[in-house]
Amino acid sequence: MITGTVTNRRASVDLVVQGPNQVEGTVAFVLDTGFTGVMTLPPAACSALGLPIDRLQPAGLADGSRVMLDVYLATLLWDGEER
User: CA 45, CA 26: separation in Å to the nearest integer?
Assistant: First the structure.
């Protein structure tokens, strides 16, 4: 079972993220009730974990503009299982 905390009406969980060569770090993720299977990390965390870029992904922003985002590869420890 994954447990988390609620602070200022924001639910979050701490999860372990692994990069290549078993470099890992614990990251606090804010839970989104509309979760679509995609998780985001700040660029500094991607760099610190040495995550490789997999591809560029187009995305639409709230103001209607379109941007290209880097998509990185990582392993997430989710309830004791690697994903």
Answer: 10
**14 backbone dihedrals φ, ψ, rounded to 5°:** -95, 125
Q: Burial-class residue 18 by CB neighbours within 10 Å (0-12, 13-18, 19+).
A: middle
Residue range 10-68, pLDDT digits in tens: 899 999 999 888 889 998 888 887 777 778 888 888 999 999 999 999 999 999 999 99
- Are residues 17 and 24 in contact, defined by beta-carbon separation less than 8 angstroms? yes
Tell me the one-letter amino acid at 61.
L
> Which neighbouring-strand residues pair with 14?
28
Cα 62 to Cα 17: distance, rounded to the nearest angstrom: 28
Check: CB of residue 4 under 8 Å from CB of residue 15: no
Residue spans of the domains in the chain: they are: 5-82
* Whole-prediction pTM: 0.72
